[in-house]
Structure formats: structure tokens, C-alpha cells
Write a structure and sequence with these properties.
- It is a single chain.
- A 6-stranded mixed beta sheet has the order 3-4-5-6-7-8.
- It has 3 domains: 136 residues, tt1808, chain A (Alpha-Beta Complex); 102 residues; 140 residues, Rossmann fold (3-Layer(aba) Sandwich), CATH 3.40.50.150.
- The termini are far apart.
- It is an alpha/beta fold.
- Strand 5, helix 2 and strand 6 form a beta-alpha-beta unit.
- The chain has 15 helices and 12 strands.
- It is 41% helix and 13% strand.
- It is elongated, with a radius of gyration of 25 Å.
Length: 473
């Protein structure tokens, strides 16, 4: 079989590539300009994930790799080879097919069946992935009595990892998300719940958040990974029930830790089959170690699509939050307030800005970051609990913002459901005890504006110089 040449690598020191309008620069070879399409977006994000999260080198990945299927010569989107192996069809180990969101996994031409045919044509391919950015399916090739079959698995293995490690990972094998792969996973899980549990999308959203926080709780406090569901468990009722029981145990502990977020009688209402699928889609990530911007973008998109109301509410773009925080440059002793916090975008950005200052100072003091980490955690906890305060009128947004804080660096004690336009005497006791009036150093906010939310209460308006009800004369 003829060998296919490797894609040329970018030459160090070469002139920068000027990307043409309507094109996107290929992440793998850093030279090819490909047409910017929804399908190409998915492929480039998966390519980034293969390198950044799965640990493969760029020269181990072929893009649009030509295959021989009888008289046909199709091109596979991404093909992974063992380190040092030639890029030849008989040396391929993993095949990934990427489609646009409009392409369904059941499609006859471009669905999962296409991936299976490509895997069958490559004698040494063991694993495959098919995704359209919303759906994602991973498979292990099996040979029985001379026939080729495919078993669905939670994920393809990362470089140097066995399939067993994917089925039940260790904490040191979890990978932080560095690209939109986490956004794809959240979308995929949310849509799966809505489509297979019979819930409306807002209800599906809250069930997904319960599972996400079980995942975070597991990363923080479990001695061994309990948040997992193997492919064998997903295949049978008994296995699904075992996986569900593990997650339910995590949720019971979670409720005790966060009584202001979860009610004592609250339960995970997903059936065992759906829950096992959701767990399998998230178990390979470390949410605590994932990039802050990646987590924020993924979380806020799915929150925004479910909790953005008809009251003029919208969420501030993350680059605006970052710009405002950089301009005001908060420090550890600054009391920071957002009186219309939404999902806490401003507060989380400001909090992480200060945390980096704390980490830098303690690292310089102790000489290395590992020795400094205990001191960093103590200072961060004190800062997050005492100096970061958020308020919002919408109780669901407050709950979502508390969850967002937990996923980032835990400042839930400073988030309250309250009308910040009303006099402080009307606020709950814990918020009044903060004695915010005249004490706030920095205020970041983007309150809801618009004609749909008129304020006409005289008791509120009389406190503001511009608080008038205008009538046309």
C-alpha cells in the first residue's frame, strides 16, 4: 500500500500567515487555509482538543486523510497514528469524523455508519469518534468470528492511556478542558436529557446542573473517582442502577454541603439510562482544572439559553467583563459588589483577577507554587467569602450564580436574592449584616434595562434623583 506523506509542519521563524476573509487556519499544520464552515469549526475544535486535552502531537494527526474503500477514495476528517509511524492507511489507530450541527448521527450518508465504514477499512484502527458538536459517539472496534463490530464507549483514549483507564479514570488522568469541547459536551448532555427524558429544556437544564455539581464534588472530596459509568454499565439495567447509585450518594453529600443551593428533599430525577450517558460524557474532564474562560463560556451559554427571561435580562460578554476588571484592577482588600449579578460573570472575573495576584505574591514568598498552595487557598477562601458580594432579583439566577462560583473558586456565601433598588432594611438578615452602604470599593454591574421592566413603586423612586414617572404633556 502506498504511503501518504505527512502534512508539512510550520517552519520555525517563518513569516506569519495572513488568513483570508472567510477562511480559517488549520490548527494542525498551521499553514492550510480552509473554508470557514460550521463543519470546519467543529473539526478545528476537536483537533485542538486532541492536542491540548488528549495529549497527541500535531505530527501524529492527519487532516482530510485519504482512504481506499474499494473504488472510492473518501477523506477522513482526522486520523491519529502512533508516534513515529508513517501516515498510511494500515497504520491508522483512531479515526474522527466531524460534521455540522445539522447533520444527524442517523443520516445514511454522513452519519455514524460512515465512521464505521472508515474504521472497517483500516485494519489497525481500534477507536473512532463521530461528532457534530452536539451529538458525540465513541466506539471501540471488536472482531468476532471474522466479523467487524463496534461497541460504544465513553471516550477515545488519550495518548499513552489504555481503554480501561478511560472506563474508570484516576484523578491524575482527568484532563482540564482548554477548548470548546466542554461547551459541546454541555450542549450534548442538555439536549440528550431533553430528548430522552421527556423534560422541557429549562427542567433539563436544572437536572444537568445537579450532575455537573456531583462531578465537582467528586473532584474535590472523593479519594477515588466515583463519578463514572463504564460502557458495560451503560449496556445493562443493573449496571445503570449501580452508576445511578454512585451519583446519588455524591448528591446526598452535596446537599449537606450546599443547603442554600439544594433543598433537603431534592433528588436527581433522571432515569438510570440517561444519567449513565451524561456521566460518561463528562467523566474524562477535570472541571476544577479546566480553563476559567472555557468553563465560563460553556456554563453561561447553557444558563443563558434557559434562564434569560423576557425582562430585559442578558449576560455581559466575557471580554467586556475582563476589560472592566482590568481597568479597575481590584486587589485583595477591595470590597467588590455587583447589585444585578446575573450568573456572576463580573464577580468571577474580578475574583480570579485577585486570585492570580494572591498566587503570584505567595509564590514569590515561598519560592515555588506547590509550597505556596496552602497559603493561597486560605487567602482565597477568606477573600471570596468576605469581599465578593452579588445580588439579583431572580432567584433562579442567584442559584445559577452560586453554582458558577462553586465551579470556579467558591464564593457562594456572598451571593443573595434581593432587590438592590429597595432600601437595605428590606433585605434578608445575612445581607443586611454585610453593611454595604458606604463600604463598597468597586462596583461592577450591567443591570437589566428596557421598557419591559418599569419601576413604578414610589417607595423606590423617591430615593433616586432621576427616579420619576414621566408622562407626556
Amino acid at each position: 500500500m502506498a504511503k501518504q506523506e505527512r502534512t508539512p509542519a510550520k517552519v520555525p521563524g517563518a513569516a506569519a500567515v495572513i488568513v483570508q476573509q472567510g477562511k480559517i487556519l488549520d490548527y494542525i499544520d498551521e499553514l492550510t487555509q480552509r473554508k470557514e464552515t460550521p463543519e470546519e469549526y467543529v473539526r478545528q475544535e476537536i483537533a485542538k482538543s486532541l492536542v491540548r486535552e488528549y495529549g497527541y502531537q500535531k505530527d501524529e494527526i492527519g487532516v482530510e486523510f485519504g482512504l481506499r474503500l474499494g473504488s472510492r477514495r473518501p477523506r477522513a476528517d482526522l486520523v491519529i497514528f502512533d508516534e513515529g509511524d508513517p501516515h498510511a492507511q494500515d497504520r491508522a489507530r483512531v479515526i474522527i469524523e466531524c460534521k455540522s450541527e445539522k447533520t444527524k448521527s442517523t443520516a445514511r450518508k454522513d452519519g455514524v455508519g460512515q465512521l464505521h465504514s472508515y474504521m472497517s477499512a483500516c485494519p489497525n484502527v481500534l477507536f473512532g469518534m463521530w461528532t457534530n458538536g452536539v451529538e458525540r459517539f465513541c466506539y471501540r472496534r471488536v472482531n468476532k468470528d471474522g466479523d467487524v463490530g463496534f461497541n460504544e464507549i465513553p471516550d477515545i483514549p488519550g495518548k499513552g492511556r489504555s481503554e480501561e483507564e478511560v472506563e474508570r479514570p484516576r484523578f491524575d488522568q482527568l484532563k482540564g478542558a482548554l477548548s470548546d469541547a466542554l461547551l459541546f459536551a454541555f450542549r450534548r448532555c442538555h439536549n440528550y436529557i431533553a430528548g430522552n427524558q421527556g423534560l422541557q429544556k429549562p427542567e433539563a437544564f436544572w437536572e444537568l446542573l445537579k450532575v455537573i455539581f456531583c462531578k465537582i464534588h467528586d473532584e474535590r472530596l472523593s479519594r477515588e473517582v466515583e463519578f463514572y459509568a463504564t460502557s458495560k454499565e451503560r449496556d445493562g439495567l443493573n449496571g445503570r442502577l449501580k452508576a445511578k447509585k454512585r451519583i446519588e450518594n455524591l448528591f446526598e453529600d452535596l446537599k449537606a454541603e450546599y443547603p442554600t443551593i439544594f433543598r433537603p428533599n431534592e433528588v436527581i430525577e433522571l432515569n438510570p439510562e440517561v444519567l449513565a450517558y451524561i456521566v460518561s460524557q463528562l467523566q474524562m474532564y477535570s472541571l476544577l482544572e479546566s480553563d476559567v474562560d472555557v468553563k465560563g463560556r460553556a456554563y453561561e451559554e447553557i444558563v443563558g439559553s434557559n434562564l434569560r427571561g423576557d425582562r430585559g435580562e442578558f449576560f455581559t460578554p466575557r471580554n467586556i467583563c475582563q476589560m472592566a476588571v482590568a481597568m479597575l484592577d481590584p486587589s485583595e482588600g477591595d470590597l467588590i459588589l455587583d447589585p444585578a449579578c446575573g450568573t456572576a460573570g463580573f464577580l468571577i472575573t474580578a475574583m480570579n483577577h485577585v486570585i492570580e495576584k494572591i498566587r503570584t505574591a505567595e509564590t514569590e514568598r515561598w519560592g515555588d507554587i506547590e509550597r505556596a498552595e496552602t497559603a493561597v487557598r486560605a487567602r482565597v477562601q477568606r477573600f471570596a467569602q468576605k469581599y465578593v458580594v452579588g445580588m439579583d432579583l431572580n432567584p433562579n439566577l442567584v442559584k445559577a450564580s452560586k453554582m458558577n462560583m462553586v465551579m470556579n473558586n467558591d464564593g457562594t456565601g456572598g451571593l443573595f436574592q434581593a432587590n438592590s433598588l429597595k432600601a437595605p432594611v428590606t433585605w434578608e438578615d445575612d445581607l443586611r449584616r454585610r453593611k454595604l452602604m458606604g463600604q463598597v470599593d468597586l462596583l461592577f454591574t450591567n443591570p437589566p434595562f428596557g421598557s419591559k421592566i418599569p419601576i413604578d413603586d414610589p417607595a423606590i423612586l423617591e430615593h433616586y434623583d432621576l427616579g420619576h414617572i414621566w408622562r407626556q404633556d
